[in-house]
Amino acid sequence: MILKYISGRCWGSRRVFQTVLGWLGAAAISYGVICALMMWQEEAFIFFPSRFPEGNWQPRLPVEDAWFEAADGVRLHGWFLAHPKPRWVVLYCHGNAGNITHRADILEEIHRYLGASVLVWDYRGYGRSQGRPTEQGVLLDGEAARQWLADRTGWPADRLVLWGHSLGGAVAGHLAATGGAAALVLESTFTSLPEVAAYHYPWLPVRWLMRNRLDVRSIIHQYHGPLFQSHGQADTIVPVHLGRQLFEAANQPKHFLEIPQADHNDPLGPDYYRQVKLFLDTHSPPAHP
To answer: Can you tell me the mean pLDDT for 94-119?
Structure first.
């Protein structure tokens, strides 16, 4: 009887052990499938383009359609708003969602409060721009947009104000680090894409698996011009501590504006643009070439 009892207990324990192993194996397989799917569809988690005709393509502003090509032949589109006597010329790089029609108010505010000529443009796959967005693609797009704006206005490419929001800040940061700028304005910008992904998906090994990186922190030290950086304290997309880390890696002169209770896409208002103008007046005085 004793041997039979012990044998039964062992067999029961073995079955429990096998069941647990089965559960762990199924969990590991499920985890691997999730990782593989997210790697396969990585761009879909980063870029959220609105393609034409979504949006209001009849702006109230006297904008000029800008058409230009990236180095790999992708045709791109933007809106250029000229100022009769520009104090600065601004290349505005928008975030990862929507298209230029959703930035018409920002275009007008920069034009009005800074007295600047402004180009806002769409990455490949956004608005009227052709193609499909990728990390390398949007950086090529930024280079093409900068060159078009320099050619159109007669201002040297390294004397443009590069201005970017969120993902657009990463594009503007790369342009400034590799080609210079009169000034760099960054809004709600991250250190790198994997660090943003790790904040939202701490249970996934995104730092090692992601192909798209847009690692601005690793190259921001190459830029030696003025930097005005802002970030909302209540940012739920790019936490403010990532903005602080990027700012710490940058050279002087620089200024960090932390906006109380502001989320990632909250409107900034006239006072914000006045602060940017004051910074530019101090560190990058207007000087038409």
So the answer is: 97
The SS3 call for residue 225 is coil
Q: What is the mean pLDDT of residues 265-282?
A: 95
249 within 8 A of 276, measured Cβ to Cβ: no
Mean pLDDT of 176-201: 95
* Cα–Cα distance measured from residue 231 to residue 233, given in angstroms and rounded to the nearest whole number: 6
Query: Is it the case that residue 216 has pLDDT exceeding 70?
Result: yes
Specify whether the CB–CB gap between 168 and 94 falls below 8 A: yes
Can you tell me the mean pLDDT for 159-181? Answer: 97
Contact 100, 121 (CB under 8 A): yes
Structure-token match 């990632």, residue found? 264
The reported pLDDT for the residue numbered 3 is 46
Active site residues: 166, 235, 264
pTM of this prediction exceeds 0.85: yes
Residues 267, 287: Cα–Cα separation, whole Å: 29
Whole-angstrom distance, CA of residue 28 vs CA of residue 210: 20
Helix, coil or strand: residue 76: strand
Closest CA to 235 of 260, 257, 269: 260
Structure tokens at 60: 């109230």
Query: Which segments of 137-235 are extended strands (E)?
Result: 161-165, 183-187, 227-232
pLDDT (0 to 100) of residue 40? 46
Q: Which pair of structure tokens corresponds to residue 139? A: 């950086």
Whole-angstrom CA distances from 227 to 118, 224, 241, 262 are: 18, 9, 17, 20
